[in-house]
Give the backbone structure.
Amino acid sequence: MMKNETFDKDKISAPNYVDIDEIQNIISSSNKVAIFGHVNPDLDCYGAMYGAKYLCERLGAEAHLFAINSDKSFLNDIFDKSLIERDFDSSKFDLVLMVDCNEFSRIDIKFREAVQNFKNILVIDHHEHSMIENGCKFFIQSHICAASMIIANLLFSYKIRLNKEYAEYLFAGIVGDTGRFLHTNTDKDTFKCALKLMEHDIDIQRIYDIVYRSVTIEQINMQKFLLNNYHVIGKNICYIVVTKKVFKKLHATPEDLKFFVNDLNTIKDFNVVMVAYEVEHNKYKVSCRSKNGFIVSKIAQKYGGGGHKVAAGFNLFGNKSAVVRKLKKICLEF
Ligand SMILES: [Mn+2]
């Protein structure tokens, strides 16, 4: 087997870790594979899931995709959503493949228990590994920008021919997690992979039109709200708390907000951006972004969340004033 040079061999020597030959064996010896990503799937999550389906099928296994997605999401315009299933009967499968996700707590609540109880699980991911699950096999490449890129490189390593449709899915995943080749996770291997995908005649403008040139008025209102209402504290840490009431008033959704979290991070002086938004009554998700050498994954992990060095998240509970108080305290920990 020709090893792909972008895969880090050191990271796959720990117990429970598999190499790319073992991944090939595990998948090709399976009959029916159930593929899961993380809750609220994003571009990279779907890219990796669809890519993994293609990979499984080319290795001779039947593969099914499981996800809960909102009907409004622009993701529906990129991916063939007729392939997504919502009812998982674990008895029909002999392998669960988790991509872009290495913790059961990040699996959608609808599937979590069934996945957690499943006996044969393979994890292919690029998030920093925070938990070793007994019995799971892991392939974690946290230096790679996107789970979609890991899947693409596996396909290249196995010399599996891609088609235009799936090359577009994988490219979209890489675009999503690198912020169109902007974030610090972008390196020469990212471009090498993107180039190989582009050789399949993919329509990158279609992807960019859907992701970056389809902003709605509700999203612009959300953006205005963020830019008018953020606060700065400590070492140039920017924070804002968005309640359900605000979403209602602006006719916007958390999905609309997520789009602009990176916007605040483009402001030159800010080292860290923390956006807390209410997802359920008194439950706030906090999206964190950082630059200038500041790391947010440790803080996110400390508060029960996780993610990458410069993009991570966690939850806070309580009413608005309690969440503001907690968030300000956390901002001062940098
Ligand atoms: Mn990802």
Notes: The first strand starts at residue 32 and ends at 36. The chain has a mean pLDDT of 92. The chain has two domains: 10-210, 217-331. Residues 44, 100, 126, 146-147, 177 surround manganese (II) ion (CB under 6 Å).
